[in-house]
Design brief:
The complex is a heterodimer of chains A (640) and B (768).
Chain A lengths: L1 H4 L10 H10 L7 H28 L7 H10 L16 E6 L2 E6 L6 H6 L10 E8 L16 H9 L7 H7 L9 H14 L15 H15 L3 H13 L7 H17 L3 H16 L9 H13 L12 H19 L6 H14 L5 H13 L2 H8 L3 H13 L5 H25 L6 H8 L3 H21 L4 H5 L4 E6 L6 H17 L15 E8 L3 H11 L21 E5 L13 E6 L19 H21 L3
Antiparallel strand pairs in A: 1-2, 4-5, 5-7, 6-7
Helix pairs in contact in A: 2-3, 3-4, 9-10, 10-12, 11-12, 11-13, 12-14, 13-14, 14-16, 15-16, 16-17, 16-19, 17-19, 18-19, 19-21, 19-25, 20-21, 21-25, 24-25
Chain B lengths: L1 H17 L8 H23 L3 H11 L5 H16 L3 H11 L3 H5 L1 H26 L9 H7 L4 H7 L4 H7 L10 H15 L2 H8 L2 H14 L3 H11 L8 H9 L3 H4 L3 H8 L2 E6 H13 L3 H10 E6 L6 H7 L33 H15 L3 H4 L23 H15 L12 E7 L5 E6 L5 E6 L4 E5 L5 E4 L2 H4 L9 H4 L1 E7 L1 E4 L6 E6 L5 E6 L3 E6 L4 E7 L5 E6 L5 E6 L3 E6 L7 E4 L5 E6 L5 E6 L3 E6 L5 E6 L5 E6 L5 E6 L3 E6 L4 E7 L5 E6 L5 E6 L3 E6 H7 L4 H6 L8 H4 E6 L7 E4 L5 E6 L3
Parallel strand pairs in B: 1-2, 3-31
Antiparallel strand pairs in B: 4-5, 5-6, 6-9, 7-8, 10-11, 11-12, 12-13, 14-15, 15-16, 16-17, 18-19, 19-20, 20-21, 22-23, 23-24, 24-25, 26-27, 27-28, 28-29, 30-31
Helix pairs in contact in B: 1-2, 1-7, 1-8, 2-7, 2-10, 3-4, 3-7, 4-5, 4-7, 11-12, 12-18, 13-14, 13-19, 21-23
The chains are: A alpha+beta (640), B alpha+beta (768).
């Protein structure tokens, strides 16, 4: 440590201006330059001396941080009256100000209103010192309990992955070495372990990549994976919570990683949307865990995530199931991992961008994949949107126009084009609102962006209005503003059950959502098979809710009614439940659900008028519009 | 004799305070003056009697066969001093006390001669003592009035006339100056020479750089060549070994002559010679070079400020030198570690195990040899014959065993029988006691030997005691209530306790500054605490009140510890002196002076005959309790020492410092025998397991590490040559010796304790 300090060793003295300032403060004006110089040297020396003594007190106080009391004690042993009245806080009490060519450091003392002090309730009495015992080690092995640090800190995981040859500290050897591969039989691992123990002291071997999970860990792994893909939403929430927060999961990380990548591989082929969503949520949870060093497993995780974004088909009935939500979610995950893991060496972001762009540019690309590519790109941030997406708006608009206005080729294509359109509008509007100069001329937009121009124009106008509104409200509705995204919930339809019977489960969702309130939205799927309902819950504040309601009230008159009332399924497809004005919603005033129901065509026995499904484009449009009307607001509010 | 010594010091002090020339000066100045006088005195004697020091000191020793020579010399020096200052009464008292016959002292040659040879070191010792005695004005001595009346010797007045006489005297050596511009040239010339010599000599001669650099710099500063000094510093400070960085930083701040006044580090450099060990060949090379070049400037410095300990034989290697250097004043002189140290354990008193339980007795029989197995080489079976290395049972008087102590011993044996044999393949479990909500305020921790109580010292001046067993802490009833108790009843000990006061923890208020050291008495009846306020307090754990405040250290007391046999305790503090106390004396019995910086930690040897002190001057000293002599000086640490631990067999010692290294020492030979690297921050806690097989170290870096000391001690090959010269090759095997490393959750480890069954307890405050 001495070596580090070495270069700093120099004879720094206080500036003479300080001396002058100090002299002035005690009423000595006109201090000569020479006296100042002499004084500053002397003062600097004394200060250093005191600081050196104060360090002693710090060492004996068993601290790493020098406190004002140390200075006081150092002064005391020099027979100098300590400087009373300085409390050590976590910050240095000096503030810096400059102006008029002068630089000042001053002690910030706020004016305190006495009545505030009197009227505020007394703070809680600080807790008294108490003693708590725990096992730091049991016969040489550190138990993984909350009182102990996670078995391998992130740095160590990193060190081990980057320098596998470095010797592992014996204390952590038992459970410390991280494994790279997997699939070694436990017997083999055991043998290795024994061998190693015997050899210990003779040769320090490269830590084996094989690894054995303890019985508890195996049980944990089993429980967690089962809960994550199982049918009970509450259990899943708990499991994901555990993955996202528990330290010391790193030993299971390779297994989780394989579980996810294999799971995606299998379920994409089988078009099992629900499971894919679960797996993506696991990825999300893993990424949220601050103690995990994921870099080593990106090669498994990224392909899985990208698959969920761009795969041609993710569900059995692409026309009805909302695989779009999954694509959105996965795209956000991708963006997040790009942000966290992209470095100059692995170049994740640019590689991903290239992949997306390439398949987007391909003429033959399906609408689903197209959607995924655009979503993936646009989640990467406004810069990417600006450089890659906006220039192609015209071309893309033409293509959409061809599908929507042209002869009906296939319903699936139409839905796809529609989704792509709304996606483009959603993402581009906010970016354009920020970059394009003001006059929002519908015609000009048409010239610039082609088919999508007019729609874009109205979106931009809305986005601007929204932004302005927020600028006004910025102080009050903090929560609403910062909540960037809506949260997705995919709920099942009970096989024969009426919608009413499902209501509780849907209503229950928000409470479980609060547990895993996470940056990108989290689709959840409470229970078994066919997915028909997507519940979008945003915890939007009163103001934005109001807006949405007014926007949508024309189409969705059932806004304030419960889901049960929405059993008149055929056309609404979209139910907006607003707690604020709702008759039933009084108990949960801030939640708003948009239930997009996409009843299955013929097979659905549930919705009596299933035949009506092929949504009259207007009604679907209404539904989509609602979504949109909500989203620009949200996206302008979102940080990026 | 020591008692009188302190009295004399006191007298000196009183004289100073009342003396006309410097009557109303502040404490600081007083202290310095006393220092000056003593050093004046020493040097004066030196000058006067330098002709015949050898013979006279010999005479002194021959006349006092009981006491070691050095002690005698000190005494004689003091006598001489008193006499010159016409303090005849004190002289008489001292003589009586010391049992010296009058004739000896009357032959002035012998007395002053003794002082002459021991002059340099003794004077510092005295200075240190006086320092700490400043506050003790309470003792009235008949001599005092006479003292005030006594005329101040002319010499003192002469120097006292100046503002800061001591510094001037101390620095006077720097007054001879050469051309300041030549300093870099000289230094460079020497540097070039040393770089050009053979490899084997280079490492040894490179040792000269640092002290030379420091002294040249100080000379420049002293002679007001500020600019040159700065340039010199900038040019060459980078060449110095990195472990001197701390001192260099202090030096770099010192740019004016005025700064040198009162700077302790600087005084250390001047008052104590920097000790270097150099082989004869290398030394000859250096000498020849300097003489050829007529490089008197450097030669003078070497002559005056350096002590070169020349040895015959192979020059040492760089690593050997690096292992031993690093202290403030160079290495220890070889003679400093020659005294025989009785490191063996005392014979355990025979205790009849009560006949109530046959099984347990059998267990004890089994238990004892088991316990002693690892120690057999050093001490054999302790109950049968006396260990040759052990001190005499009565070398220092120890308190008699009480019945309760005997009971405790029996308990101890029973527990020991259940002890786990530790080893590299059988690591101890560690139970960690975390202090929650301490807000960085925990400064000291101690755990009783039977692990039933934990005490914590806090920065808010409180001492808190916790019971970690279900047995709660209770106070003794008040006197009025006690009188109602039937004293004949069997459970009288139980009855005297006040049930109403039962609680898991108790707070002891009394200090007025952070509590830096804390120690339980072996019988768990008392608790010692030392604090920033300069006192050591003795607390009763029966009444939970303060019994005594030991005042003596006038400055913060960094550490204190009870003797393993109780009654005695040791304390050490910022005043650079360690003191030995007995609980029933309000004044220290011994003062261990010699460290050049704060005494940061103090530990008793298991046989209670020795005390080890670690210091901020980066040395460890071992002191003989019997006569107060320093019997070992151990150098090698590169930072202030913050923890010490003796192995249970008394043969080895471990020390930990801010440099994050643990060093192992063989006390008998005074040698470093191991270096354990691994920690990254200050080591605040060290403890050997009950059998000495494992060393646990706890550090600021939030880890507890376990080390295989059995292996560490085995690996050392000690032949006669290394033992004689002290040139040891340290095996680089820290990684092999490290048995385990356990990280806590942001909790620095500040105390470690092995229970009687070899469970490791650790303690620290959670520091979020």
């Amino acid at each position: 440590m001495a070596e580090e300090r070495r270069p700093k060793q120099c004879t720094v003295v206080l500036p003479t201006e300080s001396m002058k300032a100090m002299a002035e403060s005690i009423g000595v004006g006109q201090l000569q330059e020479e006296s100042c110089a002499a004084l500053s040297e002397e003062v600097s020396y004394r200060i250093k001396e005191i600081a050196q003594d104060a360090l002693k007190f710090m060492h004996h106080g068993k601290r790493r941080k020098l406190m004002t009391s140390d200075i006081d004690h150092a002064l005391k042993i020099k027979n100098v009256e300590p400087l009373y009245g300085f409390q050590s806080q976590e910050f240095i009490p000096f503030r810096f100000a400059s102006g008029g060519g002068r630089e000042l450091h001053f002690y910030e003392e706020k004016e305190v209103d006495l009545s505030d002090i009197i009227n505020t309730p007394l703070p809680r009495v600080p807790l008294d010192v108490s003693l708590k015992a725990h096992w730091l080690s049991i016969e040489g092995v550190q138990p993984a309990i909350p009182e102990n640090p996670p078995p391998a800190p992130k740095e160590q995981q990193k060190a081990e992955s980057t320098e596998p040859l470095k010797a592992v500290k014996p204390g952590q050897e038992e459970e410390g070495s991280i494994q790279k591969g997997q699939g070694a039989t436990s017997a083999e691992a055991k043998g290795k372990c024994k061998y190693k123990c015997k050899k210990e002291g003779l040769i320090r071997m490269k830590p084996r990549s094989t690894h054995e999970l303890s019985v508890e860990q195996q049980l944990y792994y089993k429980e967690i994976t089962e809960a994550c893909v199982g049918s009970c939403e509450a259990k899943r929430a708990e499991a994901l919570q555990s993955i996202a927060t528990d330290p010391g999961l790193y030993q299971m990380l390779p297994r989780f990683s394989t579980f996810i990548s294999e799971g995606v591989r299998v379920n994409v082929v089988q078009n099992n949307l629900a499971l894919l969503i679960y797996l993506m949520r696991m990825v999300k949870a893993l990424m949220d865990n601050p103690t995990l060093y994921l870099e080593k497993y990106l090669h498994e995780l990224i392909p899985a995530v990208v698959t969920c974004i761009v795969s041609k088909q993710l569900c059995l009935r692409p026309d009805v199931d909302n695989h779009w939500a999954l694509r959105d979610f996965a795209a956000r995950l991708m963006a997040q991992s790009c942000k966290t893991f992209s470095t100059t060496t692995n170049n994740i972001q640019s590689r991903i961008t290239k992949t997306f762009t390439k398949s987007w540019l391909d003429e033959k690309t399906q609408w689903t994949t197209r959607y995924g590519c655009i979503a993936g790109l646009s989640e990467l941030g406004p810069d990417v949107i600006k450089t890659l997406i906006i220039p192609r708006l015209t071309i893309e608009g033409a293509r959409i126009k061809a599908v929507i206005e042209g002869p009906v080729v296939s319903n699936i294509d139409k839905i796809g084009a529609d989704h792509v359109q709304s996606l483009l509008l959603k993402h581009c509007a906010s970016v354009i609102a920020k970059t394009r100069p003001l006059p929002d001329n519908m015609e000009q937009y048409r010239v610039d962006y082609g088919y999508l121009g007019p729609m874009l124009c109205s979106h931009v106008v809305k986005a601007r209005a929204q932004a302005a509104l927020q600028a006004q409200q910025v102080n009050r509705t903090t929560l609403t503003i910062t909540q960037p995204r809506s949260t997705l919930t995919v709920s099942q339809s009970g096989i024969g059950g009426s919608v009413g019977s499902r209501t509780p489960s849907i209503i229950k969702v928000p409470s479980s959502l609060t547990l895993m309130s996470t940056r990108p939205g989290t689709p959840t799927q409470p229970s078994p098979p066919a997915t028909k309902y997507i519940v979008m819950a945003t915890s939007a504040g009163a103001s934005s809710t109001q807006q949405v309601i007014t926007l949508s009230s024309s189409s969705a008159s059932s806004v304030t009614s419960t889901v049960a009332s929405a059993a008149s399924t055929l056309q609404p497809l979209v139910k907006l439940e607003s707690g604020g004005g709702g008759s039933l919603g009084g108990s949960r005033p801030l939640q708003k659900y948009i239930v997009v129901s996409l009843p299955s065509s013929a097979s659905s026995s549930l919705e009596s008028k299933s035949g009506m499904l092929p949504p009259s484009s207007s009604s679907l449009e209404a539904g989509m519009k609602m979504e949109r009307s909500d989203s620009p607001g949200a996206s302008t509010q979102s940080p990026h | 004799a020591w008692y009188i010594l302190s009295h004399i010091n006191l007298i000196e002090k009183q004289r100073e305070t009342k003396g006309p020339p410097n009557g109303q000066v502040d404490l600081e100045v007083e202290k310095k003056e006393i220092k000056t006088e003593t050093s004046n005195d020493g040097s004066g004697n030196n000058n006067a009697n330098s002709s015949s020091p050898g013979s006279t000191s010999l005479g002194a020793t021959s006349k006092s066969p009981t006491g070691p020579a050095e002690d005698q010399q000190t005494l004689l020096a003091v006598l001489q001093f008193l006499k010159r200052n016409k303090l005849n009464e004190s002289v008489d008292i001292l003589r009586r006390e010391a049992g010296l016959s009058v004739e000896i002292d009357d032959s002035p040659g012998s007395a002053s001669g003794g002082a002459g040879s021991g002059g340099a070191s003794n004077s510092t010792v005295d200075g240190g003592d006086t320092n700490s005695l400043l506050s003790r004005v309470s003792i009235a001595i008949p001599a005092a009035p006479a003292v005030t009346a006594a005329p101040v010797p002319p010499k003192v007045t002469a120097s006292g006339g100046e503002d800061q006489p001591d510094v001037n005297v101390v620095l006077s050596a720097y007054s001879q100056q050469g051309d300041p511009d030549l300093y870099p040239l000289y230094y460079n010339g020497l540097k070039k020479f040393i770089e050009s010599v053979l490899d084997c000599h280079r490492a040894e001669l490179s040792q000269v750089f640092y002290p030379l650099f420091v002294h040249m710099y100080l000379e420049l500063v002293y002679n007001n060549h500020e600019v040159e000094a700065k340039q010199f510093f900038e040019k060459f400070s980078g060449d110095q070994e990195c472990y001197y960085a701390e001192d260099l930083r202090i030096l770099s701040g010192m740019t004016k002559k005025e700064h040198m006044k009162g700077n302790e580090t600087m005084l250390d450099f001047r008052t104590s010679k920097f000790v270097l060990r150099i082989s004869r060949d290398s030394y000859q090379l250096l000498k020849r070079h300097l003489q050829e070049r007529q490089n008197n400037q450097i030669w003078n410095i070497i002559q005056e400020h350096l002590y070169i300990d020349i040895f015959d034989g192979m020059p040492r290697s760089k690593s050997q030198i690096d292992a031993m250097s690093g202290s403030l004043a160079g290495e220890a002189k070889r003679d400093a570690n020659k005294t025989k140290v009785f490191y063996g354990l005392l014979k355990e008193p025979e205790i009849e195990v009560p006949l109530d339980d046959e099984d347990e007795e059998a267990e004890n029989e089994e238990g004892k040899p088991k316990k002693k197995k690892p120690k057999k080489d050093s001490m054999g079976s302790k109950s049968k014959k006396q260990d040759p290395n052990a001190p005499q049972q009565t070398r220092i008087p120890l308190p008699e065993l009480k019945d309760s102590d005997k009971l405790d011993k029996i308990m101890n044996m029973k527990e020991a029988a259940k002890k786990i044999r530790l080893g590299s393949d059988n690591l101890p479990s560690i139970c960690f006691y975390t202090f929650l909500n301490a807000y960085q305020g925990l400064t000291a921790v101690d755990i009783t030997d039977d692990s039933s109580l934990i005490a914590g010292g806090f920065a808010d001046s409180t001492v808190r005691v916790w019971s970690v067993t279900p047995k709660k802490l209770r106070r003794v009833k008040s006197a009025a209530d006690l009188s109602n108790i039937d004293k004949e009843s069997d459970d009288v000990l139980e009855r005297i306790m006040d049930e109403k006061t039962a609680s898991e923890s108790k707070i002891l208020y009394g200090h007025s500054g952070p509590v830096y050291g804390i120690s339980f008495s072996p019988d768990r009846n008392y608790l010692l605490s030392s604090s920033e306020d300069g006192t050591v307090r003795l607390w009763s754990l029966q009444t939970f009140t303060c019994l005594v405040g030991y005042k003596g250290h006038n400055y913060p007391v960094w550490d204190t510890q009870f003797s393993p046999y109780g009654y005695y305790f040791v304390s050490g503090g910022h005043d650079r002196v360690a003191r030995l106390w007995a609980t029933d004396h309000y004044q220290p019995l011994r003062m261990f002076a010699g460290h050049l910086a704060d005494v940061t930690c103090t530990r008793f040897h298991p046989n209670s005959n020795y005390v080890a002190t670690g210091s901020a001057d980066r040395t460890i000293r071992l002191w003989d309790v019997l006569n107060g002599n320093c019997v070992r000086i151990l150098t090698g640490h590169k930072g202030p020492i913050h923890s010490l631990a003796f192995s249970p067999n008394g043969k080895f010692m471990a020390s930990g410092a801010t440099d994050g290294r643990v060093l192992l020492w063989d006390i008998g030979h005074g040698l470093m025998i191991g270096e354990l690297k691994g920690h990254t921050d200050t080591i605040y806690a060290l403890r050997f397991s009950r059998d000495g097989e494992i060393l646990a170290s706890g550090s600021m870096d939030n880890t507890v590490k376990l080390w295989d000391t059995l292996k560490a001690f085995d690996d050392v090959e000690l032949d006669d040559f290394t033992a004689a010269t002290g040139h040891i090759h340290l095996p680089e095997n820290s990684q092999e010796l490290l048995l385990g490393s356990y990280t806590t959750k942001s909790t620095p480890v500040i105390h470690l304790h092995f229970t009687r069954r070899n469970l490791l307890l650790a303690a620290g405050a959670y520091n979020p």
